[in-house]
């Protein structure tokens, strides 16, 4: 099996166009047509991780954090980024990152954190805007089922987590006149035709648009396909940042802090002043989630569990919520477990390993 088989599957679950503008998810080093030997999963891609891949016979490293965030102008080993890339190239090891695109999907990084905390009734904390589009296409009655099925098979018609193959269909007729040089499926050159047609409307995400159009062209009988594409203001409830959910039973704040420390395997938690009330609703965001504080407050969360808070940003809690900073690595450490489960479930016939290296650059003295 080739590396691209794994990449294509991961990008079905977390499309690259869902990554943030500053990100660099995707295949960073290597050839997607290379045959896989073994896969090594890590939160970070470092020189030590690449060496571990060499030692264990892995030729694909899948990390959450990209080793390259900005352009490299020279490759002379002056820093750890250049040295890591050089080592990977020298040893023909592909480096792939699945970062904020995995943060922005249900079942991704933040779902894993919520699961570790046993949160129920989970939902995206803040939906990602400008994700949904609508296709309207006009199809002769004889080919309605064929075209509609092709659109569904390409991924259109999914609404929420529990409904797919959704469409709206309106009967009408279309008119057209084939001109010289055309090859009409229906009608004669120079004669206006009126054909009974169905207007099919389906919602889809931007990430599948190219695939959807190719499927439409292949299934539609007309030489020139009539269709419209629209941007939608609707929110994609399964796509966005952070997660919100409820504890199965309310807890005292001190008990929740102990629960948080145990379940996320934390050394320390930095937090704002406790509010003297029960904790029922919890918002989470792996990594630097401060941008979601407003959404956490609006969602009615009692605690906001995230990382990378600066001193003055803690004041923004303003006695409305408890901010709990767990540390960046600590908040995302279970992403390795998540990726391992995703890959081994889909591809059980080759070896998938998780790194034995602690890539957390922050150490604690106690």
State the gist of this model:
The protein is 27% helix and 26% strand. The protein is of the alpha/beta class and 366 residues long. The protein has 3 domains: 3-99 and 334-354, Udp-n-acetylmuramoylalanyl-d-glutamate--2,6- Diaminopimelate Ligase, Chain: A, domain 1 (3-Layer(aba) Sandwich); 109-127 and 241-326, Udp-n-acetylmuramoylalanyl-d-glutamate--2,6- Diaminopimelate Ligase, Chain: A, domain 1, CATH 3.40.1390.30; 132-231, Alpha-Beta Plaits.
SSE arrangement:
Blueprint: H1 3-13, E1 26-29, E2 39-42, H2 47-56, E3 60-63, H3 80-90, E4 94-97, H4 100-103, H5 109-116, E5 120-127, E6 132-140, H6 144-153, E7 168-176, E8 193-205, H7 209-219, E9 227-231, E10 240-251, H8 253-263, E11 270-271, E12 279-288, H9 293-298, E13 303-307, E14 322-325, H10 328-332, H11 335-346, E15 352-354
Parallel strand pairs: 2-3, 2-15, 3-4, 12-13, 13-14
Antiparallel strand pairs: 1-4, 5-10, 6-8, 6-9, 7-8, 10-12, 11-14
């Amino acid at each position: 099996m080739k590396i691209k088989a794994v990449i294509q599957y991961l990008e079905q679950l977390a499309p690259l166009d869902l990554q943030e503008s500053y990100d660099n998810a995707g295949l960073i080093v290597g050839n997607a047509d290379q045959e896989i030997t073994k896969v090594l999963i890590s939160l970070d891609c470092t020189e030590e991780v690449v060496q571990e891949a060499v030692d264990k016979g892995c030729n694909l490293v899948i990390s959450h954090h990209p080793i390259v965030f900005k352009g490299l102008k020279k490759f002379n080993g002056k820093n750890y980024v250049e040295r890591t890339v050089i080592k990977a190239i020298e040893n023909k090891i592909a480096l792939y990152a699945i970062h904020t695109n995995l943060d922005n999907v249900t079942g991704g990084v933040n779902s894993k954190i919520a699961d570790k905390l046993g949160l129920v009734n989970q939902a995206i904390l803040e939906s990602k805007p400008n994700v949904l589009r609508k296709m309207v296409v006009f199809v002769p009655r004889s080919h309605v089922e064929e075209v509609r099925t092709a659109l569904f098979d390409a991924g259109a018609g999914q609404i929420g987590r529990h409904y797919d193959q959704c469409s709206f269909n309106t009967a009408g007729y279309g008119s057209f006149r084939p001109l010289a040089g055309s090859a009409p499926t229906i009608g004669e050159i120079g004669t206006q035709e009126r054909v009974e047609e169905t207007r099919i409307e389906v919602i889809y995400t931007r990430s599948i648009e190219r695939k959807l159009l190719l499927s439409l062209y292949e299934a539609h009988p007309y030489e020139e396909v009539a269709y419209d594409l629209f941007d939608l203001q609707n929110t994609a409830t399964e796509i966005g940042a952070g997660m919100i959910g409820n504890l199965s039973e309310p807890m005292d704040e001190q008990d929740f802090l102990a629960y948080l420390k145990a379940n996320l395997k934390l050394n320390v938690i930095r937090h704002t002043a406790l509010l003297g009330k029960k904790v029922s609703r919890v918002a989470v965001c792996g990594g630097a989630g401060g941008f979601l504080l407003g959404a956490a407050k609006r969602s009615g969360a009692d605690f906001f569990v995230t990382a990378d808070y600066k001193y003055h940003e803690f004041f923004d809690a303003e006695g409305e919520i408890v901010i709990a900073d767990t540390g960046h690595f600590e908040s995302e450490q279970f992403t390795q477990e998540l990726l391992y489960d995703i890959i081994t479930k889909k591809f059980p016939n080759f070896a998938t390993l998780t790194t034995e290296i602690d890539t957390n650059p922050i150490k604690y003295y106690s």
